[in-house]
Amino acid sequence: MQVISAIDTKILQTAAQQFSKAKLLPQSAVTRLFSPDNCTLLIPDGSTRRFFRVATGEPAGTDRSRVTSAVIVAPGKIDGESLAEAESTWRIGRHLGQRGAAVPQSYCWDRQSGIVVVEDLGQTRLYDFARRKDGEGAAGQEELIAKYEQVLEQLARLQIIGGRGFDSNWCWQGGKYDADLMIEKESGYFYRACWQDLLGNGKVCGIDLEFREIARRASQAPGHYFLHRDCQSRNIMLKNGDPVFIDFQGGRLGPLGYDVASLLIDPYCRLSPEIEQRLVERYCFFAGLLEPMDDSQFLGHYQYLALQRNMQIVGAFSFLYSKRRKPFFKEFILPSLAMLATRLEESCFADFPILKKTTDTALQQARKII
């Protein structure tokens, strides 16, 4: 039996109090739902936040107003940054939900503790679905492609409809995806976390100039849409088979292509370049149903945004493995480096020989130590 600590009990009590104030259920039902006997601690991937599932075990049916389970999200510690992240979770989630985007219902939020209670979406992620279909041959691949098309259709709605009326003041890490962020949190992340910290290498002369030019080109894409910024298979739940996006609290305004790239070059699932191209074309169709699209312009920007995402992925996996001591991410470092090296072979990146050489060297070194 899982033991609930005194701190966990306090989290449950605070969540129950806020849930009661929201008047979503009769008090007797709230007491039963948030009982320690109905609580399970969930294990996150890279987050320092704490997650709990509360469930009575009763069937909810199709009525979303009949809440028989929920997920509690609590900061790992109470400080200004953690509380700001929690507020972003609440405010962005409420906005996206009101716009009809595929996100969990936001039930309540406690400003003092940073505790947020949201809809329980179950335990099946797009990642799990993709892993199951991976061994089912051609039929499984077509089912997987059909599921990705379903996800992309909802992603276009999340970005385009979700970007309307979006307030950048809700964002706790900055309200816009721009060149400065690309250099600090993506190309610079790759350079620091992988090249220097994980592999122990020194300074590479001239690479900063290439990073700036890549960011300049990527930042030419129109940036008034909602950008999830971590739209990958482990952040997409499948509830009754329908995709629902989670972990969007780092969202901001930005270009369409970044989230599409995040989904399609996700090392967790490793779609082939041929499938990636096919799905990019389907995304353009879905986005074009919501507003006029210049497909050729989108595809030109997509290449540079995908490169930015490639570098961010390598940096994140390197950091989580080497600094956060999370062994789960070790197996994805080599594939993500290989994907970055493969992308840099494309002719549009011929102007970046230093980055290409650095990536090739990093891949060779990583093969020896990972």
UniProtKB/TrEMBL annotation:
Q: Aminoglycoside phosphotransferase domain: which residues? A: 81-287
Extract the Pfam families matched here. Answer: APH
State the InterPro entries in the record.
Answer: Aminoglycoside_PTrfase (IPR002575), Kinase-like_dom_sf (IPR011009)
Highest taxon in the source lineage:
Bacteria
Q: Which positions are tagged coiled coil? A: none
**SUPFAM superfamilies annotated for this entry?**
Protein kinase-like (PK-like)
Starting at the broadest rank, the lineage of the source organism is: Bacteria, Pseudomonadati, Thermodesulfobacteriota, Desulfobulbia, Desulfobulbales
Name of this protein: Aminoglycoside phosphotransferase domain-containing protein
